[in-house]
Amino acid sequence: MKDKKNFKLLILFCLIFSISLTYPKISKGNEQTIEKRLNEISNNVRCLVCRNQSIYDSNSDFANDMKEIIIIHLKDNKSDEFIYKFLKSKYGEYILFKPPFQINTLILWILPFILIISGLIFFTFKFLKFRKND
Amino acid sequence: MERKIKLIYEIGHISIIIASFLSFLSIGVFAFHFLREYSFFSTLIKNFSKIGFFFVLISFLILEYAFINSEFSLDLVVKNSHSTKPLIYKISGLWGNHEGSILLWILILSFFTYLIAKSKSIKSSEFHITVLGIQNIILFLFCIFLLFTSNPFARNIDPPLEGFGLNPLLQDPGLAFHPPLLYVGYVGLSVSFSFAIAILLNKKVEFEWFNHLKPWTLLTWAFLTGGISLGSWWAYYELGWGGWWFWDPVENASLMPWLISTALIHSITVTQKNNQFYNWTILLAIFGFSFSLLGTFIVRSGLLTSVHAFASDPTRGIFILVILALSTLIPLLIYGFKNTHRNETKYFIFSKETGLLLNNIFLITSTLTILIGTLYPLILETITGSKISVGAAYYNATFSPIMIPFIMIMAFAPFLGWKKTPQKSLLRNILIIFILAFISTFIVFKFNNTSIFGIICGYLSILLFFSVGFAFFKKLQNLKTLPLNYYGMLVAHLGLAVFLFGVTGEQFFKKESSNQIKINEVINIGDYSVKLENVKNFKIDNYLSETGLFKITKAKKFVGEVKSEQRFYPVEKTKTTEAGIFNFILSDIYITMGEGNLKEGWVVKAYFNPLVKCLWFGAFIMAIGGFLSLFSKTNRKYI
Amino acid sequence: MKIKFSNFLPLLIVTFFILIFAINLNLKKDDKKIDQLKSPLINQNIPKNPIRLFQKNEIVELKNVYDQLYAINFFASWCLPCKIEAPAIKLLSKKIPVFGIAFKDKEKNILDFLKTFGNPYDKIGVDKNGFLGIEWGVYGIPETFIINKKGQIIYKYTGPLDVDELEKNIYDLIKNER
Q1: How far is the C-alpha of B49 from the C-alpha of B115, rounded, in Å?
Q2: Which CATH number fits domain B1-171: 1.20.120, 2.60.40, 3.90.320, 1.25.40?
């Protein structure tokens, strides 16, 4: 009986929380200037002559050349996807820090959520078992 | 004179050999006591462990002596030191390389073994022998690893006149202390490991023995917190990249044991309280040590590219892999066969047990998420040959969302009771905290623009502040009688709140700007203007510097001056960037100057990082929380 | 004594990881060379970008220059491994024509380099700003490509070529393509 009431409280709380999220000022990302886009993209591109740095972090020649090419594409109004696709076509998937969402990386992306869900299922079963033994 | 000096280093070498021999004898005692139980075995193994430590210490001090004296007949000193280096870096240079760092590991490991041998709190000699036996097995394996693959006392037949120098990035006080702190954390996990195995091996489950795990795990946790945050702080102000966490494989390798040891501390608490979570605690202790070995393995085997990696050598990698395999597979095998313990007492859904169960689930899931992110490129390459990269974008999409429910649970779990459902009034109060927190968030963010994630992060941080505050005020009447580990818990949780506050500021409100500017030109970040006043070139110590002087103003009023430089170290032939940081109380302005010249100007990056100091301040507070708990009466009893 | 399978699950998972590590270590043990990144340009047509010739006021398109097997070699005077691979490139040039591309270099330095280390190149192009290199997926010179009669890249090597690589992979490739 007590548990049921507690569940109700929990649901009430979740409702209030979600509603509250609509109040504060939410901004997507003001004007996406070329500089901002460059920073975002170069944070996602690997510097191939460095040890695990992005071209944003690196000052190497390669990193600077890459940034220049990206700026040219950005000034030409190309989209982020176009630029990523271009880099992928020349250097392969390895150059991008965000792993692709394809069949051979499915496990990579899905596993965290599978783990959480299995954890919660385990958790639920434990309590159902307790109830049964009541 | 020359003969005498050369001999001392051989003594250092022999010392380790003697220490390995003593640990081998300890293992022998441990093995034999399964066959026959002699009463003197206990004293024997304790003495071997204690004496073994002194030999390791001698070896370490002699190696340190070699570094301080720039003894170039030792290959290690040649490769990692230089006579013009400042003294403190000669000293810390010992562990700035693979061989020396293994010796440091062994030193800490044998010191902890010594402390356990000396411990008066372990009542069962059976237990004592087992723990020491396992510790010595690990020690022995590492000593053999050192002697056969990574000998720091290796000689140079033709000693050169000068050394190669120490990587200039390592010539920094922050980085000098980062490895020792981390290693205390990693090695501490071996102690929890040994205790857990000893409990597992025993015929009957002695729940009292779990009490010994707690102080050692707290020690590990506090030092890991300190070591990781010191590394992060160092990366921020020294590397000049403007970041403090890069999801680099080696960084991840240190974060995973930290998450596991956090889960372990909480899990042990449940086992101590009412003998629950036996499986969780044992498994967490085993995996804690596995993860710390994994970290060691990743850095030295060359399997993963990382800025932190030592020189890669697959032979060493194989050796460490064998140690990792043995220390994980054998205990898991034992666990598989021995795990017949089933003591399920019921607890209600709103009890502390539930909170901590969820805590375990979330922490372990986040650890496994980081693990899969770090290792997936390797796994994919092994199976299919294709190469991919897994970077910040992945972790932000997977690790961060998991943290959201985790921190919400963390906010109210301390108020729940053991086994029972809390009173309605308590639940009402908790709900009030949640509501208060989002009202505050609403107020704060009404005046500041940010994305939804920034708001969530800010909310979580404010929520934790309220949670700690409420917990503190609930006990206001009996502050004096509160056990120290309750304060420890409050302080540690407070530290996390401060840390999250820093993340909110630094991640979601930072401003950055970069441009190529000449002298007297300006870069603007937010309300601040940064003007390049001049650029000077000069030589100092062991490097050449090109330093830019920057003047910061806000609305035409002078704020401060900082210098940012490009350094070139001629001996090591490396260039480093030193950022110019102007410090406000919690935030800072961070300026880096790249290469350039008078004609074309220099590429200057300027950042305004709000609340960035909270990141490390928060971590520092967490570590203090850990130490407070460590020195509580209950925990002191069991060291 | 009841043995639960689920108790051995952690063991199995760990064994999997250890196997992965072991396999990888074994592979890495023999491979002392630079990690070759598999180029997505293999079996694709060459980039269409025209190339300016060195010291000549001409811009060419490679498909008009060669209709046989040939090699492209990105090099520079400031690049130390390029100096080391010069003899290997010379050997290669005896089998198939090698089109050199001077990468981010100055005219005088290129001339000095060719004088000191020899000129094995059939023709030489220039890539002043490195953008041509990016079109070819170049990231660490020297880099060598082999192109077949159909104008497809069939081989790419990053780093200094040595006789070993020539004998192990390149000569056979050339023989098969002829």
Answers
A1: 9
A2: 1.20.120
